[in-house]
Amino acid sequence: MRVESVTLRRMNMRLKAPFETSFGVSFDRTILLVELQADGVTGWSEVTAGEGPYFNSEFVDSSWLMLREVLIPLVLGRAIEHAADVPGIFAAVRGHEMARAGIETALWDVEAQLRGLPLWKLLGGTQQEIPCGVSLGLQATPERLLEKVATEIAAGYQRIKIKIKPGKDLTYVTPVRKAYPNIRLSVDANSAYTLEDVEHLRRFDDYYLLMMEQPLWWDDIYAHSKLQKQIKTVLCLDESIPHLRAAQTAVELGACGIINIKLGRVGGHTSAREIQSYCHRKQIPNWCGGMLECGIGRAHNIAVSTLPGYTLPGDVSASARYWVEDVIEPEVTVTPQGTIHVPQTPGLGYHVRTDLIERWTVEKETFRTS
Ligand code: OSB
Ligand code: MG
């Protein structure tokens, strides 16, 4: 494949409802899209960086700069045999996984189209129907949270994840567990606690949660290993796992029993597969996390979720939970059993609505081979 051009687009999309985590509230999303042409075929991807450096250190402006100054020049005009070779081309670059994934995942889409295969098949996926859960942001009151849980359970979702932070945790989890004694329930703190909170975090042991996601510092695996030894609830790492070596460190230190894989956070499909394959061998369950993606990122997440070891319901849910109108056709829908059927056409498997993308684009820059 010879990379002929790359177009970056900053697109504003209105969320149906604000999404609040321990690190802030998103009202609208600023989404960075990558449109990459190689061998006459167009591949699409979404850079999953947030609006600011609050989930990890990356954000839309830093990713745009990295792509323009460093990553795009490394691939433009270059003949690349496989998308899996991209991490090698970017090997000298430190960090910036989400920006790197922007190029790598778009090239996977191209490669799948050129081979006439759905992306999930090219990646080695085996599941044709993936189990889905939802992530519920922090709510104003426990009553409001209960209403949201009722809606999602009625829709069929197989797992409910509740965002928590100090002062908004057990008072929210308790009524939910009481109303639904048997559902698969988990919590996600996005690094809002410290090791001083061990006693408090141990109280979650009484709620037989499926997992507690990333309670401590975003970059501290060792601290999570100390916590895991003192509580029964299984820890799941999200922010702390940017690559395979981090996953190996976490598993060897006993810092978690589950790993959430996010395509952007780990630098793309090749790295996600390495982590999946390692976790599968170590019998560490995986699930695919979400970053409030539009349809393009969502389609990549669906492909990721088909690989072996993604046994737990992920955070990949219906387009309509977030968007009035999504940028892919058909939109992502979820069955009454809480599953998504994977698409069967080549590449991402969804039609990209360039009309909507053009309408919502506020900034655009194209890089071509000269
Ligand atoms: O930690 O999983 C997270 C959203 C933004 C940033 C971090 C996270 C989340 C979510 C939303 O939980 C998952 C989704 O896309 O539905
Ligand atoms: Mg998380």
Question: In words, what does this structure look like?
Answer:
Helices cover 33% and strands 22% of the residues. A hairpin with a 2-residue loop joins strand 1 (3-21) and strand 2 (24-38). It has helices at residues 60-75, 86-89, 97-115, 119-123, 142-155, 170-179, 198-202, 221-228, 244-253, 269-282, 295-304, 354-360; strands at residues 3-21, 24-38, 41-47, 129-131, 134-136, 160-163, 185-188, 211-213, 235-237, 258-261, 286-288, 328-329, 339-341, 351-352, 361-368. It is α/β, with parallel strands linked by helices and 370 residues long. The strands form four sheets. A seven-stranded parallel sheet has the order 5-6-7-8-9-10-11. It contains twelve helices and 15 strands. It is globular, with a radius of gyration of 20 Å. Helix 8 runs parallel beside helix 9 (244-253) and helix 9 packs parallel to helix 10 (269-282). The mean pLDDT is 98. Residues 188, 190, 213-214, 238, 289 line the site of magnesium ion.
